[in-house]
Write a structure and sequence with these properties.
Blueprint lengths: L1 H4 L7 E2 L2 E2 L1 H11 L11 H18 L10 H17 L12 H22 L1 H6 L11 H47 L1 H38 L3
Antiparallel strand pairs: 1-2
Helix pairs in contact: 3-4, 4-8, 5-7, 7-8
Keywords: ATP synthesis, CF(0), Hydrogen ion transport, Ion transport, Membrane, Mitochondrion, Mitochondrion inner membrane, Transmembrane, Transmembrane helix, Transport
Protein name: ATP synthase subunit a
Membrane topology: Multi-pass membrane protein
Length: about 230
Amino acid sequence: MMVSFFDQFASPSYMGIPLIAIAIMLPWVLYPTPSSRWISNRLITIQGWFINRFTNQLMLPLNMGGHKWALLLASLMIFLITINMLGLLPYTFTPTTQLSLNMGFAVPLWLATVIIGMRNQPTVALGHLLPEGTPIPLIPVLIIIETISLFIRPLALGVRLTANLTAGHLLIQLIATAVFVLLPMMPTVAILTAAVLFLLTLLEVAVAMIQAYVFVLLLSLYLQENV
């Protein structure tokens, strides 16, 4: 039984073809193409309003050099939200529960922010490794600690997203299994458990959106340090 709980996180395949590629490409098909007309439908209007508000909020603390990342970060945010939300549907697969995929997003983007900082302002970028006013005996230790914390950042990005989504999916499956087991024996308890499952599902919808936002927000903070 315990093995079957984790089967939902295995990458599905059909006739030897991995279906994770279809799951990754699906979000881009669902969104409507913006129209060049002055008057568009409500869906495109809401989509444009959401993207504009999010981009303005994300780019607010960044200078003009960081605004070049607006399109990339906004696209990544929408992509992660859509994948996370689609993964909550029955009989679907959530690619962002795979640590390899999340690290594939986190490592290149984090490395790009570090390279930009080393290229544009190397003194300031290296200065982050040593806080101002550090006692001389602590300088070697602090440099090592700050360097380790710098290289842990992409790992923390990927593990945070993976762990939160994986834990939520496991909780939903465990409680749903408990509802089916308790229904013939204790219907009242099963109904109460189903109510908890409904509330947990609403919480997971919020977690799916919040974790995508946190992922992109932390990337923008790393970018802020280097531009």
